[in-house]
Amino acid sequence: MQLELNVRLADGYRSPSQRARRITEGWFEEHMYCAACTSDRLDRTRGSTQVVDFLCPSCGAEYQVKAKAGALGPRLRDAAYAPMMARAQANRSPHFAFLAYDSGAWQVRGLLLVPGHFITPDVIERCRPLSPTARRAGWVGCNILVHRIPPDGRLAVVQGDRVASPKQVRSGWGVFADLARAKAEARGWTIDVLRCVRALGGREFTLKDFYAVFEQELAAQHPNNRNVQPKIRQQLQVLRNRGIVRFLGGGRYVAE
Ligand SMILES: [Zn+2]
Prior knowledge:
By secondary structure, the protein is α+β, with helices and mostly antiparallel strands. 31% of the residues lie in helices and 23% in strands. The strands form three sheets. The chain has a seven-stranded mixed beta sheet with strand order 1-2-3-5-6-9-10. The chain has a three-stranded antiparallel beta sheet with strand order 4-8-7. Strands 11-13-12 form a three-stranded antiparallel beta sheet. The chain has two domains: 7-177, Dam replacing family, catalytic PD-(D/E)XK domain (PvuII Endonuclease, Chain A, 3-Layer(aba) Sandwich), CATH 3.40.210.30; 184-255, Arc Repressor Mutant, subunit A (Orthogonal Bundle), CATH 1.10.10. The protein is globular. Zinc ion binds next to loops.
C-alpha cells in the first residue's frame, strides 16, 4: 500500500473540497480492500446513496469514506444527521473509513476503520443546524464520537508511516464481526461494557469495583433495563468467551 496521493485525479476540478474528495477517494479505491472478507477490492457506489461510498463486490459490506487534512481527532465530521441516525438505529450503519492526509505533501497519514456494528446511536452527535444565511440553511450534520468507541472498534490501517497488513486488520475485525447480526440492545450492551473494561486499562478489577465506577453510567445508557448488575455479569462472560476478559477466580477479572 503506497501512501502517496495522486493529485492528477483532481484535474479539471476547481473547488478545494471537490479536489480533496476526488484525490482521497481515488486513493481508497485503488488501495483499500474489504476488511470484512477476503476481497482485495471495493467498488465505488457512484453517489447513489447519501451514506455509502464504497461497496464490497464479494460480501456486500458498505463503507463510507471521510477524509480530512491534518490529524484525526476524537470526534470526526460525518454527513447529514438524519439518514445516519436512522441507519444506526436500524443496525444498518455503514462501516467508516476515516482518512487523514497531509495536504502539503499529498500523503496519507492515517486510515482508521470503524466497523458499522460499533456505531451505536450514542456515538452520533447532532450538530447545530446551519445558520439561515448559509447556502444550505437549516441543514443538520453530525459528528462521530470516535473517542467513545472502544479501541477494539478502531482499526488502524495506516498510522503515520506504518501500514498494517490486511491479515492484521481482518483478524482485528473478525473478533466482533458477529455483532453485525446481533439485536441492537445486545450489541449496545456488549459495546458499552467493553468500553468500560478498556477504560480500566488492563488493571485487575472486582465486580464491586466495576459497579462502583460504571453502574450509574451504564444505567443511564440503558434506561429501560432495571437489572444492570446481572447484565454487567452476563456481558463480562460474553467478553470472556471472546477472549477479551479473563476470570482470575475469587471474583477478580482482568482484560487481556
Ligand atoms: Zn467483503
